TrEMBL record:
Entries under Gene3D superfamilies matching the protein: YVTN repeat-like/Quinoprotein amine dehydrogenase
Organism of this sequence: Sellimonas catena
Signal peptide: none
Source organism, top-level taxon: Bacteria
Protein name, per record: DUF6242 domain-containing protein
Pfam family, one: DUF6242_C
SUPFAM superfamilies to which the protein is assigned, alphabetical: Oligoxyloglucan reducing end-specific cellobiohydrolase (SSF110296)
Ranges where the DUF6242 domain occurs: 164-379
Length: 431
């Protein structure tokens, strides 16, 4: 017994010593900095220099001496793209974190790929553990040395472009009258966002709502909030807002008497936004990053309005989402695409996604000679019936008294849709 006790004490001591030594090494860890990194540049292109710099950076994040909030198992640089003649280069890469926690995702600015790993080039790695990252760096060469002088997200690079800045210098925010076809709606007047539950008899102001909910990345304000981008009912009202700290949900459970905030992530920016109520929680779908004119979206879910988790988006990224809706915690839909929508459904919380064939309005096709409806704009559930609104996109020309006509489809099972009727948008410009 004495020998056994001595052995246990020795083992416990060894464990404690090992833990202390590990903590000491982690305390000595210095976070590798991108800005200021240098590499010999003689005879090397910007592409080659970036690949070496990326290799040095990721090597410094591997090994037992790196604490778990920064440590990765592996990384691959998928693409290097020289953006202009001023030294800006975009790096698209895939990483395998050593531990999946919010700290490492935030520290390394990663986005979960959610099983999308067909082209990740990390053979033998389960795609469920893959994360995507993007950065734009600026290289400056002097005396045969390349040095990184700037680092930013792709969306920030787009914002600083001359074309984008020109848009900011000539803002043209369009104003709209309040909708009169519904009792519970929003209203914007003189830079203030309001909600009403009685058709405009009384209003409740959304605190800082206009700036965070309506302000776009180009400096304009979007005063036409699309159906599906907000929730308004006496029991629960919510909007998605964007500020310098990321994405936040602004909500009220007492008809705007008290407003609360739930911080979702430190990423995200104003583009198309989509919000669904599921039980006591919510699902938010919004743009997470931008690359060469394409917005890439993420799905976030909460059960308690406090803690959010990112949901898988299936086998491919979600570019240019035009509609998104969740029925419950397992069943969700989204439509993606610029010229023509591709519509998807999940019934297992994003682990798998099934493409749903867009329905057609046969009577309209017979009359017009072609199908004008190819852009899913809204999806919702009403009295147990699923509805889908399909519009015409930016090049549509099928109109009624100057208003673009849309098609409303219905389904009993959420999968097979039939044409219901033609509709137009009742939102009017302010006089």
């Amino acid at each position: 017994m004495k020998r056994l006790a001595a052995g246990i004490l020795c083992l416990a001591g060894a464990v404690l010593l090992c833990g202390a030594w590990t903590q000491f090494r982690w305390n000595q860890f210095e976070i590798p900095e991108i800005i200021g990194s240098e590499i010999a540049g003689v005879g090397k292109s910007e592409d080659e220099a970036c690949r070496e710099l990326f290799s040095d950076y990721t090597d410094a994040l591997q090994g037992m001496n790196v604490p778990y909030e920064y440590r990765i198992y592996d990384a691959v640089l998928n693409q290097v793209e020289v953006l202009d003649g001023n030294g800006y280069v975009q790096l698209d890469y895939t990483m395998v974190p050593a531990a999946v926690n919010s700290e490492i995702i935030q520290n390394l600015e990663l986005v979960y790929l959610g099983g999308q790993g067909a082209d990740h080039a990390l053979s033998g790695i389960d795609s469920r553990y893959l994360y995507r990252g993007q950065m734009v760096v600026r290289l400056e060469e002097e005396n045969g040395i390349y040095k990184i002088t700037e680092k930013m997200r792709p969306v920030d690079y787009q914002i600083q472009s001359p074309e984008f800045q020109e848009e900011i210098r000539t803002p043209q925010t369009q104003h709209y009258a309040m909708r009169t076809d519904r009792e519970e709606t929003y209203y914007i007047d003189d830079g203030v966002l309001y909600v009403t539950y009685d058709g405009g008899e009384t209003f409740a102001e959304v605190p800082d709502g206009y700036e965070r909910v309506c302000r776009e990345t180009n400096g304009l304000y979007d005063e036409n909030l699309e159906d599906g981008s907000y929730l308004i009912s006496p029991e629960f009202t919510a909007f998605l807002g964007f500020d310098s700290e990321g994405t936040v949900m602004i909500y009220s459970t007492d008809q705007g008497a008290v407003w609360q905030e739930s911080r979702i992530t430190d990423l995200g920016y104003k583009a198309g936004t989509y919000l669904s109520r599921i039980g006591d929680g919510c699902v938010a779908v919004f743009a997470m990053d931008r690359s060469l004119g394409t917005d890439y979206y993420g799905i976030w879910m909460t059960d308690d309005m406090k803690t959010w988790r990112q949901i898988s988006t299936g086998e491919s990224m979600m570019p240019n989402v035009s509609a998104a809706f969740w029925v419950d915690a397992q069943t969700g839909y989204y439509a993606s695409g610029q010229e023509q929508s591709v519509f998807y459904r999940t019934v297992d919380q994003g682990q798998t996604w099934q493409e749903i064939t867009l329905p057609q309005a046969d009577a309209v096709i017979e009359k017009m000679g072609y199908n004008p409806f190819d852009q899913v704009e809204q999806f919702y559930l009403e009295n147990g019936v699923y509805y889908m609104v399909v519009g015409q996109g930016d090049d549509g020309d099928y109109t009624d008294q100057g208003n673009l006509i849309k098609a409303l489809f219905r389904s009993e099972d959420g999968e097979q849709f039939t044409f219901e009727k033609e509709i137009t948008d009742s939102l009017q410009e302010a006089g």
